[in-house]
Amino acid sequence: MSDLKSIARAYTDSTHRHPWRWLTLYVAITLLAVAFGRPEVRTDLAELLPEDAPAVMAIQEARERRGGTGESFSIAVQSPDPLANVRFLDALAERVAEWPETLFVELSRDRSFFRDNALLYLPVEDLQTIRRNVQRLVREELAAENPLFVDLSAEGRDEAEPQWRDPRTWVSDLTLRELGLSDSEIGSLFPFLDDETETETDGRDERETDARRGLPEQYEDYYLAPHGRVGTLMASMTVSSTDVRTAHGIFDRGTALIAELDPTSFHPEMQAEVVGAFRDFLEVRKIISDVAKATGISLVLVVGLLIAFFRNARSVVVVTVPLVMGVAWTLLAIRLVFGQLNTLTAFIFSMLIGMGIDFGIHIYQRALHEYHGGASWSQALYLSLTRTGRALLTAMVTTCVALLAMTLASFDGFVEFGIACAMGVSICFLATTLVIPVLVQVTDRVRPLPRRAPEPGRPQGDPAVGPLGYITTFRVISVAVVLLALFGASSVRDARFEYDFRNLSGPGTNSTISYRASLGSSRSSTPAVILGSSQEEMREVHAVLRERLRAEDPRLANFVTIETFLPADQEARMEVIDDIHEILDRRAVRNIGGDTGELVTRLRDMTEVEPFAADDLPEWVRNELTEQDGSFGRLGLLYGQLHWWNVLEVRGFQKSYGTIEIPGGTVPVASSGFILDNVVRYVQADGQRLAIYVFMGLFLVLLLDLRSLFATALCLVILAAGIMLTIAGMTVFNVKLGLYNMVVLPTVLGVGVDGAVHLYHRYLEEGRGRLWHVMRTTGVAVVASSITTAAGFVGLLFTSHKGVETIGKLALIGIISSLIAVVGLLPGVLSWLGSRRPRNPFTTAQYETVDDDEG
User: Fold this and answer.
1) pTM of structure
2) Among 197, 328, 408, 656, fewest CB within 10 Å belongs to which?
3) What pLDDT, in 10s, does the model give residues 349-381?
4) What is the assigned CATH class of domain 2-43+282-451+463-503+687-854?
């Protein structure tokens, strides 16, 4: 301790002799930090999970096997005219294909192969149904044309009159669903099933649904929504959308191309925009903008509060400048340690303004007190650093311990936030203790601060406050706080977790054009990847999924495997198809005319097929199921029937389809959507463990500092009361715990115990008869520092990222609750304990001996 005092003495003396040299040094360090400390921001949640997380391992395997990231650069176009849409897409494709990053541009998927081989994609049971229907249709038609025709077959005599134009008469709904066909797609792949009756699709009549059917044949398979009003271009790129700078450039180039081609020149109501993965970087851009805005708002609020607290510009400069320097130094430290910021750590600068300002308020307020008491500035600063500095050091350590406890988390987002924030708090503490003495000396050289009149001699005891006296007042307030804390304890069960990620999403990723329908029906959502080890295994997977689909599993929308595109039982299907062809190829049947004859002709043409192999499949099909090493058919795609923003639905889907049980074992499934559930699972598990770690860490730090088990327990009781008040506030203001705001809990715990440490240390120094004086001095500083800390989080309330906004809400509730617990409960407890013990129960010997040169 004496060594630290010697260092403090030497430093304050040096700043008195050479203030301008020290100031120049710190300004140079700050400018260097600003110049080189500009880390980028990443928002990929998968990077914040441990590498052995199931979802991360599955995604990594999928990326390795499929090759690349699999993302596409996409542009969506929308207008009432389908023909204008496809012409604009053609113009876009011609220009995008010229970009050096473009591998190929895709406007459509040729379905002619499937139209030509449609019957081979129907299961044997559906083909048998078609054969029975054909037999009956032929019998009825021949009977109608030939009165002498006698049907000797017993089959079908008692059947109800069929609706020959109804697709469900020929093929089961489950088969159509398994093939992923919407009503508007049935006619294009199975013309003999074309439904000419008026139906409704999503509230639109059939004429609107079939709008794209009037397009020229060359546009038949374009990525168009069924109504034709929306189309999409997709381009495979050599770059990844996760590279923020690259995505930024591609996005801006696409936006500029749209403006150059002028969509309104194709149709007055046409609009177009970049959509999909290369739009996601907008969230990063907005987060960076929000960081600056939140930090600016917080800084303005803190400066305003400092003006109200100190009532002069000199004090604001002395307290604020070291904080700004500390934040800048932290920026450089984070750049050196992490290189990048994530969504959580990006906003710690706004938080540091609130947490770091505490150090300056306490140090400078104590220095002013000593200076106006008659000490020189060097003496005042020395006394402030050695007396208040000890409590500040303990407060800083407790805050850092609470933050560093997050390094024990499994969720890397917590680990990074804990380390970055702990670095920031410690650096701001260092900057404050180093720079404030320099600024005090510099400002005093520029304009000396006049001393106030000396305060009257130290009274023997505190005055009465209010009609009840200050002791009774403290105790009444403490009882009220206890009651509020009990209310919070009773509300623990009402505290809920936020599972709806729409309430935690970032801005800028949602497009204004709804383009998913243009990519397909049941396969329009982002698929999960089935990671099989062989074609045979994937066919087993297909059989399992087919049974689940036919059992109408509400979580399963569709799936694609090698069996989907290359059925294994083609020979069995060909036997039934040959029977159908034989029936339809008879002369009498060929002579059937009218609508029935047209249907028979279409169906007979479709029976003229032969079994096919993988090499016969369209290129886009082979690409979809081909791996980087050239293997075909070991992967599959799985489409869920769920809302991916709802973690509970994702959890249910992952439980059912995270792995697929087959007779030969289990097959894993990879999905970026599973990341959300994995993140929430880790966060919830970490939250429970971290609370224990934080309390253990705080207990050890407080015990080492206070050297009293009783005093340590007292501070932790105050902290627990603050937590209960926080829960009560969350219940009243309907604030839920979530992925983002859980990171602020250790911060709130650390900040909450700081006030108790400051008051307790000052209480030991002044003695139990000076409780009112403690509250009037250090208590006021605790209130000011807590309010400024809260102000540091206010800026987060003005961000457009909803998840980060919840950090601000919970922090404000937690900090204010902790402040109420400290200033409302601790004085009452101290007054009650002090009045019932013949001596001060706390160790005060360490404060009773003061060096002669300390004034």
Assistant:
1) 0.70
2) 197
3) 777 887 788 888 889 988 998 898 889 999 999
4) mainly alpha
